[in-house]
């Protein structure tokens, strides 16, 4: 292919948590080969975490700060949620681009093949992949560590300088003053301490999806990671348990759910394994989710206990609006069983 070939659209996909000089080089390559650029911002709509601390709107703003007005007019920012399902994720990316592209447009995909996580670059037939060269040793993980572990503003600024555009460094220093950042610092510290103690997995966990009378049972997490976020009752599997036993035990421990195990087992309507390598910031965590459906029966009394600060029955119709309040991939686990999102 001619390196000077021009495209109608160039696509750049990333999480940009935060945007750094390597990302800026990708964007510059995209702008150099196409009149219009679409930036797909991954991990959109998810709850804030130490791994995903910036909303997609915040990331769009920080990237836009690096562009002049004429260039900014050539760039469109679009959210892309983490489906933790490659087929659905690719379909959503293609649909987002198609909705913002004229039929028959010549589309280029700009990306750097870093490791196995970059295999997605080869999953878009009809788009021309333009490989990007490596850009030093800069990575967003190390920048997040600087943000969450630094105590001195001047030292933080010095460490960020040279790794991210100056406008982004200025943005990040202001962002650190926002009230929720203290909780993200605490979460980062807890996750890093856990990795030093327990390693990075693989871990086996269990979760319980319990529905009754058009409601689903959720707990409020009482400890980092995800402190204050809503989640499914669940936790780590104990050494001598089967996964079904573990799910029922965690359900009872965290909510006080009083049904006998034999009765609850008779209400089991489905199981599924969720094993995406990036589903948990704690490390490689494979969970076995169990769906128990109580039908139209009266909602049993529940109360938060053990690791749960609270427990409540939530109308299923309200779950879509709660996506940004749910822990890790629990919204997508709920979607798997309850079909909350439109089919891809």
Overall tally of domains: 2
Low-pLDDT segments, ≥5 res: none
Strand content: 15-25%
Q: Count every helix, treating DSSP H or I runs of 4 or more residues as helices.
A: 11
State the total count of DSSP E strands: 12
Structural class: alpha/beta
- CATH topology label of the largest domain: Rossmann fold
Q: Share of helix among residues?
A: 25-40%
CATH architecture of the largest domain: 3-Layer(aba) Sandwich
Distance between the termini: 33 Å
The helix-strand sequence is EHEHHEHEEHHHHEEEEHHEEEH
> What's the overall average pLDDT, rounded?
94
The CATH superfamily title of the largest domain: HUPs
Rounded to an integer in angstroms, the radius of gyration calculated over CA atoms is 22 Å
Which CATH first-tier class of the largest domain would you pick? Alpha Beta
Shape, per Cα inertia axes: globular
The largest sheet, given as strand count, sense and whether it forms a barrel, is: 7 strands, mixed
Feature tags:
alpha/beta, Rossmann fold, Nucleoside Triphosphate Pyrophosphohydrolase, 7-stranded mixed sheet, 33% helix, globular
In short:
The protein has helices at residues 21-33, 56-64, 69-72, 86-99, 140-149, 153-160, 166-175, 181-198, 243-255, 261-266, 330-338; strands at residues 7-14, 34-44, 75-81, 107-111, 128-131, 203-212, 215-221, 230-231, 234-236, 268-274, 285-293, 308-315. With 344 residues, it is an alpha/beta fold. The chain folds into two domains: 7-175, HUPs (Rossmann fold); 203-338, Nucleoside Triphosphate Pyrophosphohydrolase, CATH 3.90.79.10.
């Amino acid at each position: 292919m001619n390196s000077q070939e021009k495209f109608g659209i160039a696509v750049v996909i990333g999480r940009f948590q935060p945007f750094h000089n390597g990302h800026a080089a990708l964007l510059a390559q995209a702008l150099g080969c196409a009149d219009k650029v679409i930036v797909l911002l991954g991990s959109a709509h998810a709850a804030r975490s130490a791994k995903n601390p910036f909303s997609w709107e915040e990331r769009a703003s920080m990237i836009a700060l690096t562009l002049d007005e004429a260039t900014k007019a050539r760039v469109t920012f679009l959210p892309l949620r983490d489906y933790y399902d490659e087929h659905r994720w690719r379909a959503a990316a293609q649909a987002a681009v198609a909705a913002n592209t004229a039929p028959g447009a010549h589309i280029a995909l700009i990306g750097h093949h870093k490791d196995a996580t970059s295999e997605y670059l080869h999953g878009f037939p009809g788009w021309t992949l333009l490989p990007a060269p490596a850009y030093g040793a800069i990575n967003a993980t190390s920048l997040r560590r600087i943000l969450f572990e630094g105590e001195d503003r001047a030292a933080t600024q010095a460490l960020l300088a040279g790794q991210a555009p100056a406008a982004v460094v200025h943005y990040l220093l202001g962002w650190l003053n926002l009230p929720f950042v203290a909780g993200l610092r605490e979460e980062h510290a807890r996750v890093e301490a856990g990795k030093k103690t327990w390693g990075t997995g693989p871990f086996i966990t269990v979760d319980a999806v319990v529905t009754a009378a058009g409601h689903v049972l959720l707990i409020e997490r009482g400890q980092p990671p995800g402190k204050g976020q809503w989640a499914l009752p669940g936790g780590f599997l104990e050494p001598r348990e089967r996964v079904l036993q573990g799910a029922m035990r965690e359900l009872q421990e965290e909510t006080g759910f009083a049904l006998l195990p034999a009765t609850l087992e008779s209400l089991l309507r489905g199981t599924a394994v969720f094993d995406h390598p990036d589903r948990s910031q704690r490390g490689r965590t494979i969970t076995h989710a169990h769906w128990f459906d109580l039908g139209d029966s009266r909602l049993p009394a529940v109360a938060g206990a053990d690791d749960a600060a609270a427990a409540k029955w939530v109308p299923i119709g309200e779950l879509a609006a709660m996506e940004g309040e749910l822990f890790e991939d629990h919204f997508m686990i709920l979607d798997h069983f309850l079909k909350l999102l439109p089919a891809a």
